[in-house]
Amino acid sequence: VxxxxxxxxxxxxxxxxxxxxxxxxLIGHFDLDPNRAFDIVLECFELQPDNKIFxxxxxxxxxxxxxxxxxxxxxxxxxxxxxxxxxxxxxxLTALLVKEEFIDLDSIYAHxxxxxxxxxxxxxxxxxxxxxxxxxIGKINLAATGKDLMDDEKQGDVTIDLxxxxxxxxxxxxxxxxxxxxxxxxxxxxxxxxxxxxYHAHILFGRLSPLNPVEHVQICNSLFRLIEKSISSAYxxxxxxxxxxxxxxxxxxxxxxxxxxxxxxxxFVDLPSELFQMLSCAGPYLYRDTLxxxxxxxxxxxxxxxxxxxxxxxxxxxNPEIVxxxxxxxxxxxxQARSRIEEALxxxxxxxxxxxxxNPAVGQEIWEVMNLLPYEARYRLYGExxxxxxxxxxxxxxxxxxxxxxxxxxxRLAKENLKQLGRMVAKLxxxxxxxxxxxxxxxxxxxxxxxxxxxxxxxxxTQLEYDVLEYVVIERxxxxxxxxxxxDGLNLSDWLQSLASFWGHLCKKYPSMELRGLFQYLVNQLxxxxxxxxxxxxxxxxxxxxxxxxxxxxxxQLDAMAGSETLRYQATSFGVTxxxxxLIKSTNRLRDSLLPKDExxxxxxxxxxxxxxxxxxxxxxxxxxxxxxxxxxxxxxGTLLQYVEFLCSALTPALAYAQMIPSLHDLVHLYHLDPEVxxxxxxxxxxxxxxxxxxxxxxxxxxxxxxxxSTTNLDSEPTEYSGNVVLDLGSSKKPIIWSDxxxxxxxxxxxxxxxxxxxxxxxxxWGLTLYDLYVPRNRYESEISKQHAALKALEELSDNSSSxxxxxxxxxxxxxxxxxxxxSELRKHEENVxxxxxxxxxxKDKWWSSCPDTSKINMEFLQRCIFPRCTFSMPDxxxxxxxxxxxxxxxxxxFNTVNHIDVLICKTLQPMICCCTEYEAGRLGRFLCETLKIxxxxx
Length: 939
Known about the structure:
With 939 residues, the protein is mostly helical. Helices cover 66% and strands 1% of the residues.
């Protein structure tokens, strides 16, 4: 014993060999019992576990005896009369022997008590009791008196309890503390962690998982020590890169985060697979060490960025000798890194977040890791996060408490206390974003009046919570078991309308909201033939871009729709100024979400699917009544009009829209769109056809000035324009000649239709707009008068304070700018109508002159042109009447206006009305009104 207990620091290899020789001599000389001697050696090793001499001495004894001797020691402490816990040194000794493979884990495990099944049964009963307590949180006591309930409601200040779950957990830890002393398997697990033997510790974690061993503070702290040790080298690299980013970005305009990312990528960061096993075992209990949690997040981020850098540089291909994380292929390493990070987030980081009281910094660190993943992976993690932790009492308690506090706050949330209660909501959401935000969304679905105060209260949320909120909204949309239409089958359910309105207001106000997930959901739904959720797209466009689809236009608004962009905007902007900075930013965000730079672009797929769904609504209708089908058709058609208007306005210059949209041939023959829908999409592209030899004459303007044709030649022979009108879409695409477009037009209708129509007339009719035929001079003059009146009202204000003068100056500049724009656009509009009319005058003679069957001109013209377009929108209805009037005023050969009205009223009107939806019938009525206005003056 004296020899064994000498100072371990003085031991050298020679001294160790001499000591072992002396011990052998003593055993042999005095004929000592080897087992007793082995027992003494083990006891000395237990007292000096850091003395390396024992690791050289123990192999001289039989291995089979070691497990028996240690088992006898464990059994000794199992006796009732001993009444003493197993000393920790014995656990550490056993763990060292197992680690050095001197004894087998299973051979010593058989001697430990209590039996696993008994321990599991006892813990399950304990856990069930705690789950019952957690489930009772927030439940209404039906035995309570009315006075008690009213007293609860009359509480003055609203308070939130962020520590109730932790208090419950503390009580459980105290209650389970004797278990750690009496359960020898848990003690052995602690020993393995103490000697850094993760291999065997991981095996015991797997066996004892039903006992939730990490709940014990001693085991948890030992596990945290191993995690800290595993990430120390990687964290040094990340830490150094972080400080380098500050040095590099000082005095420069480079974003510090980008510099930090590039610095991390420049240094290879690798992590052992054991770390992710440790994080999985730690589970939600990493909340106990927030500093370590943040270190883990930073290391995981550096790990993934480093893997991305290896793929970008192609290190594996350039240098096959480099083996990254066990993989020669950097792509396999990146795939493995992503899988590991997703596992760490789902099993440890996200569950830990909901137990940390109101710490947005931790949430931001987790988001820095989450943000590296695509939204599909993030949403999957959110779904697993919610389901996997339902059986953990402290997590359930945290959720129930958060749900109760959220409901209590929402009952009192108003404009007056928005700042105070909004911060309380944010504090709850920082810890339990899923539960809090889901509860809020449920309340909004039931109470639409809550949308405005709730949206204002969300200004305190973090980026992670915004991302969770989008997942919650999409999940609520996809959740089955709820009707999205009311019982009448016509109107949208209140919850869906409330959810759509809430989402529109939220995305408009907060630029952090990501929209790609919702757009992909809408695309997937349209692929399934379901378009009810398009109401969300309508709300987004209305709120973020201020493009509102309105069927019931007033006379003034409808007249303004024939005007310039400024006039149309002021007629339908509902008080929002054109150059509103917030509106411009939100419009650009919506556009960039549909057309991201490095992600799949959904703008065109969404457009084509909406257009296809419009045609399929009637074909695939399963509604019992025709009115239900017509309502769905009108709703989808309105979304299509609104979406196309948004794309045309948001994509600048117009060439960007033309480059994005498929060709007219593909729209009709590849995507099988109706001609009227195809022309709606392609009409802005047609206006980019340009006359060769002139840089500023676009179709449908007359190019007589560009070709030195005198205006006196209006009655001369018609000129062929199709050969010199070209659409140049840039170097990446082949130019399109007008004659090629006419060839496509010929394939859009049956061959017999061209007996009474010409492709030139058909293309002209569908390519022009109301802006090309009519100048709403009264509306221009009215808006100009309003601007003059506004200027005069500003000049009459008597407030001469500095702030008022500054505001007046800005308002004057804004009004004057609008006034100048309207005046200029009126002049351009008049020139445009004159030029278009001149072109039509050139082309009118050939529209029907080559048609062999002129007897069916009016019927074919109504069927192929007028009826499809006059029922398309209110401005189109007016356009059709104006186009007929233009044909009449130009004296178009073979077109009989009286015969046209006769066929319209007497032969086709009645069956046409029977085929119209409610909105289409209104547009048809507007067309008839405008047509009969013309005929009224002839009587």
